[in-house]
Each structure stands twice: as C-alpha cells, then as structure tokens.
C-alpha cells in the first residue's frame, strides 16, 4: 500500500486540510493519506496549542467519513524533537510492506535542504507538493510561489500536484473564535461541534 504522510499540528484541522488531503488521495499516486498530528513540544509551549489528544480527536472526527484519509498519532510515541526522517524510519520498520511518501506545500519544499538528513528522505521517498500562496509586495497582494525557482523542482522524487490553492489558516480560525466570530463554515461540522462544546480557543 502507498501511504502519503501529511504532517501538521492541526490546531484545529479545517476544511482546507481536508481539501488537500482528499485531492492527494484521489489524484496522486497513493492509496491513503495519513494525517500525522505533530505533538506538542514542551520546549516551545504555546497557550494556543491544544493537548495532543484533543487535536487527534478532531482529526479523527474530520476524517471518519473519508475512507482514504486516516488520523495518525505515530509521532506521539517517538522521542522529541520530531524529525521527519526518524518518523519515516520508524514507519518503514513497523510497516515493511507499505511505501511512504510525503505531502507538503511549496513553501516547505523551499526549505527542504534544511531538514535533518534530507538527502536520505529524497533517496527513499516520493514527495507530493501542493501549491501555496505567498504575500509579497507593498500592496500585500497574495501571489503564487515561483514553482520554477523551487529547490529540487527537477528531482525525480518530487511531484508537483495541481491541487486547489487553499489559504485557510488555523491561526485565523483560532483568533476569530477568540473574538466571537462565526468560523463554522471553515470547519468540518463535527470539529466545530467539538470546539464549541469544549469551549476550545475561546481564551
């Protein structure tokens, strides 16, 4: 089985995450997308970051109706800080018959050369890249990242996927919940119910 790993804090997971995950599951050369919830790093405590298992529960609620998209808590069980290469090695040992690839935005591809053991990642794993927007210029207009200038663009393991450009921010959602604004359309219904019932992000 071919698994695409989509890493994130998912604080909270929103419809933008699901749009990307579903597009990759349907249009990239993978069978499932695992949404890997990045655990809370105690060295970088943030009051806005919910407990690991609250965020995992919301990912479960968001994906339970999508058979090709699964939540993953694999990094909860690994030593911190979490390096992608360590997670990949662990998964390959645990599931030797699975083929793991990465799903990332164009912005992350630009900084891939800074990742720990990035050469090993590229040697053994496919990477599926979705488009992102980047704000530039004095007018603050949002423009697409220059795909042509991306590092590794021509690498045989890099695949640029023509996915929808989705610019919904978890930060925007959290900030607006705190302000008492209605963000319900930006969240899967069950996730919104979970947030509202538990008063998440209101303080």
From TrEMBL:
It holds the Pfam family CTP_transf_like. Residues 5-175 form the Cytidyltransferase-like domain. Its EC number is 2.7.7.18. Pathway: Cofactor biosynthesis; NAD(+) biosynthesis; deamido-NAD(+) from nicotinate D-ribonucleotide: step 1/1. It comes from the Bacteria. InterPro entries: Cyt_trans-like, NadD/NMNAT, Rossmann-like_a/b/a_fold. The keyword Transferase applies. GO terms for molecular function: ATP binding; nicotinate-nucleotide adenylyltransferase activity. Keywords: ATP-binding, NAD, Nucleotide-binding, Nucleotidyltransferase, Pyridine nucleotide biosynthesis, Transferase. GO terms for biological process: NAD+ biosynthetic process. It catalyses: nicotinate beta-D-ribonucleotide + ATP + H(+) = deamido-NAD(+) + diphosphate. Belongs to the NadD family. PANTHER family: NICOTINATE-NUCLEOTIDE ADENYLYLTRANSFERASE-RELATED (PTHR39321), PHOSPHOPANTETHEINE ADENYLYLTRANSFERASE (PTHR39321:SF3). Catalyzes the reversible adenylation of nicotinate mononucleotide (NaMN) to nicotinic acid adenine dinucleotide (NaAD). This is Probable nicotinate-nucleotide adenylyltransferase. It comes from Flavobacterium bomense.
């Amino acid at each position: 089985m071919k698994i695409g790993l989509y890493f994130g804090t998912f604080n909270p997971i929103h419809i933008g995450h699901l749009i990307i995950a579903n597009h990759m599951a349907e249009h990239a050369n993978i069978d499932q997308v695992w949404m890997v919830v990045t655990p809370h790093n105690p060295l970088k405590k943030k009051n806005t970051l919910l407990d690991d298992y609250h965020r995992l529960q919301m990912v479960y609620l968001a994906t339970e109706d999508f058979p090709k998209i699964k939540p993953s808590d694999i990094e909860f069980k690994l030593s911190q800080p979490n390096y992608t290469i360590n997670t990949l090695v662990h998964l390959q040992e645990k599931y030797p018959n699975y083929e793991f690839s990465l799903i990332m935005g164009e912005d992350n591809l630009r900084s891939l050369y800074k990742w720990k053991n990035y050469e090993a990642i590229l040697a053994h794993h496919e990477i599926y890249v979705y488009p992102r927007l980047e704000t530039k210029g004095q007018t603050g207009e949002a423009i697409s990242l220059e795909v042509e200038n991306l590092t590794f663009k021509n690498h045989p393991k890099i695949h640029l996927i023509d996915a929808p450009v989705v610019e919904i921010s978890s930060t925007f959602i959290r900030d607006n919940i705190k302000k008492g604004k209605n963000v319900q359309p930006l969240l899967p219904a069950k996730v919104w119910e979970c947030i509202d019932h538990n008063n998440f992000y209101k303080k």
